[in-house]
Amino acid sequence: DADVTQTPRNRITKTGKRIMLECSQTKGHDRMYWYRQDPGLGLRLIYYSFDVKDINKGEISDGYSVSRQAQAKFSLSLESAIPNQTALYFCATSDSRVLETQYFGPGTRLLVL
Amino acid sequence: SQELEQSPQSLIVQEGKNLTINCTSSKTLYGLYWYKQKYGEGLIFLMMLQKGGEEKSHEKITAKLDEKKQQSSLHITASQPSHAGIYLCGADIYTQGGSEKLVFGKGTKLTVNP
Q: How many CB atoms are closer than 10 A to CB A102?
């Protein structure tokens, strides 16, 4: 079973709709992240959370919100989707107790029409 | 401005050839990560480098971090079609405020022709 899972894997939605992307991890890591990837721009950090009570804005948080429901779950919401939010979204986790790399989920491909 | 500059942006090589991808920063890097991504899939961790001058290898891929910890190179020897994908470097840097920040390069798209 994958350590970091994302649902849905693919989603098509319309402008103005609310959509939630979910991320779950079984690694027991305290830190979780949401990134988006656009062609030619690499990964950009949207939000990150160092524990359940800690939420931080990343580089491009406008238009997004997050919820850390539990240590293992971190969801990303688009309150009113717009076409330029079409992208590949990645969730990642890391363990602050050791110098360890981030583990990424498989990605969610979102298309906003 | 881009805090991690990756070059080249894309690379097409013939199978069996060696190649190098570079990742450069103007700031000291406290952790340098190399990832590989196949189109539409998640990122696969390749290597992490922390110490100046450190070098790590995995199969035919070698990554180095320079002594000043501001540049890393990823070298693939005798490339194969299975090496094709997008290679991303990521790094931990410290902001002026003293907080830790994770940044990524834009990626290098590698095509290996059989």
A: 23
